[in-house]
Design a protein that fits this description.
single chain, 293 residues, mainly alpha, extended, transmembrane, transmembrane helix, diacylglycerol cholinephosphotransferase activity, AtPDCT1_2_TM_dom, PDCT1/2-like
Amino acid sequence: MPPPSLAAAQDQVAANAAGNGIDARRRAGKGKKVHPLPDAGTTMGDGVGMGGGESRKGRPEWMTPAGAAGVLWRHPLPVVFACGLLLFMGVEYTIPMVPHAAPPLDLGFLATAAMHDGIAARPWLNSLLAALNTVFVAMQTAYILWAILAEQRPRAAIATLMMFTCRGLLGCSTQLPLPAEFLGSGMDFPVGNVSFFLFYSGHVAGAVIAAADMRRVGRLRLAALYDALNLIQGVRLLACRGHYTIDLAVGVGAGLLFDMLAGRYLDSKNVDSGENRCCSSCQKALFSQKLTS
């Protein structure tokens, strides 16, 4: 049996050798990605190292019953749209088409049939509703002009210019027939009951642009009022057969789209993205015009 001093020296040499081996392995493995060993009881292909995105059987987690329930709970809107896709894929191949000699089928016209009959029997009511609608259009126009001239916020005006230009192009490209039950009035806008494009509704799109601008600057109550009047306007246009339902729906989308495009245009010109005020050069031009006037 070696003396205690010799045994201690041998233990120190063995410890140093073990430490040197560990350091060597660390240096050799430096910079390499080390994956943890699988737990006991798991086998290859059990989904280890998949970041939790796949189940133990190799399927994506959302394909399991629990995963599908979680997706439905967290993302109900895409699920509803997916169901709508499946529904209308079936409708597309089974719905009968309207014959070429028949009038267009419009569910909005069917829903407002009683209102249409009541307005048709009272010409004075038709003129009154047309006049009120024209006043609402004037309110939209006045607000948009006020925003650019008095408050120097051109976004709504630019969106309106884009919207009406696109509406004119689409109206020239595809002209839908005027509904046979159309109730015109000399008080309607355009004033004098002149001809106008049906697709899409500039009445609705203009109100959407104005309301979006109001929300942007915190005029929430005024925006809610315009939304309510826009809804009433849409019902009146359907009852008087001044627009098809699709004209109104696309009018809402057009208002939102061109408001967004106008905002992107102003952002590209380094205009303040908060309230979208005029750029410095525009303000100088407006200021010089005020001085000269």
